[in-house]
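The following record pairs a protein chain with its ligand, beta-D-glucopyranose.
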Amino acid sequence: MEAFIETLMSKMTLAEKLGQTNMAFIGRDITGPILSQNVDEKIRQGLIGAIINTYTVEDVRRIQQLCIDESRLKIPLLFSYDVIHGHRTIFPIALGLSATWDLKLIEQSARIAAEEATADGLNWVFSPMVDIARDPRWGRISEGSGEDPWLGSQIAAAMVRGYQVDDLSRTDTILACVKHFALYGAAEGGRDYNSVDMSPLHMYQYYLPPYQAAVNAGVGSVMTAFNGINGIPATGNRWLLNDVLREQWKFEGLIVSDYAAIKEMSVHGVGDLQEVCIQALTAGVDMDMVDEGYLETLKKSLDEKKITEQQIDQACRRILEAKYKLGLFNDPFHYCNEKRAQTMIFTEKNRSIAKEIACRSFVLLKNDRQILPLAKSKLKLGLIGPLADDQKHVLGGWSAAGDWKQCVSVRQGIQNLLQDQIEVFYAKGSNLIEDPLILQQLNAFSNDISLDNRSADIMIEEAVQIAQKSDVIIAVVGEAQSMSTEGGCRVDIGLPECQKRLLKALFETQKPVILVLMNGRPLTLPWEHEHAQAILETWFAGTETGNAVAEVLFGFYNPSGKLTSTFPRHVGQIPLYYNHKRTGRPFDPNRFIDRFKVNRIRTHFN
Ligand code: BGC
């Protein structure tokens, strides 16, 4: 590899080397501002090294072909994508996956994701996301494995094994990318992108282990984080990227910035585009995701002797090494196999494993008087709630190329399982959320929350009528998927008001109510906990949601998931996590009771 790359680099111009460090955006999804222009022409000139957000063999082949046929050195492109919890077959969101505590299954989910993604032309996934998070207000808590560094580390390694299988040259393995390095989950106040101020002790003890576990498992790439760390943005942080990652942990792979994170260092106040690019390169960032700052400014910085050619060579070399290990120099169309695309994606087998994993991720939070499992026959079931017949939100955030039309709703899942053995009455009961400002923000990118034409009162009335003729009520409530994803932070992590109104009306019928929750974060549920007879946490469980929920509700599968992040009773308690240090005066509920007793005794003797 060294000899091959040395020879190749000896033929490259400075512009072509910088081209390798440049990732351009083409394609379907938007995760930030669209910054790439004239992509085809730049590919011809050798000014692009990787593409984000293009997949399918057809599209990848067309672009790779352009590169091979029309660029001078014919250096194949990397094709990257956010495959986070499955590619076409969608598994539970990562927080749900972690609740399985089942490393084999988690690894298998990554294996299947890699098989499907590579069959779809991709060779690089931006996963695993291993940010430890203790603040459920942060929307991206849904993408990680909760609050425990040990479990997070095991999962990080399992995911890397699933994606890469220690041999990147196979057609069904894919370059993994651990993110977001580092401490992104500790954003102050749970507000996305926010700064982090943390002692090194705390970092090493709680937050850094999962990233290191991914490095030890051989992860091929690392993505930087948007946040600042103790005053310096992670993307330009030499201590973090060089001293810790490269020198202490001996990471030899490729470092890519997060989306436009280099350019955004200017907004942090670091300097103009030229300055932030110098800082990112000097810190150790090899590839610039979409903002083209490296391409535009590094030549000037070299001329002005603010950086050296060796630094550019180093970045370029690491990118070429990744391409070499993926086998792209042997065959640039290694991942463009139409037959694999037809046979490996969204197969029956993959769906059945997705169902098993979904079942395993569910957490039974409450089950009073063993109301669950439900009887499989002679039952009148009131199936109520804005998520009871939903196919869209069950996918969860970052559901890559998942197609909601292929998802199974709870209503459908019950029908699939029991056909006409029980009677099911359905009512939507309420909208998912009604606050106009929040709705506007949530719908800005996806438009996936539509309001019912009927008034809240009429929807509730219909639900109550159905409840009254039912033996038991299943209320499927929770969040919209976009409420817990990037930028999806909340100050109030309870159920939205309109859903609470519905629940109140249902509780008032005195019928037993079982809550089936769908959400991407811990929620505050003390009132619901008091009134519901059972609560089943199902997260956003992916493609097979409905089939899995039905199996668990009716006792075909015994739920065994365990929480990996703490559910607070009130937002005021945040941050609340299990592995906190003791204070000198730990809370003792009996202390106050004792004091009352003492007072009463005193009064008695007086
Ligand atoms: C996210 C990353 C993601 C990247 C590319 C960013 O906004 O923070 O997690 O991999 O976009 O889509």
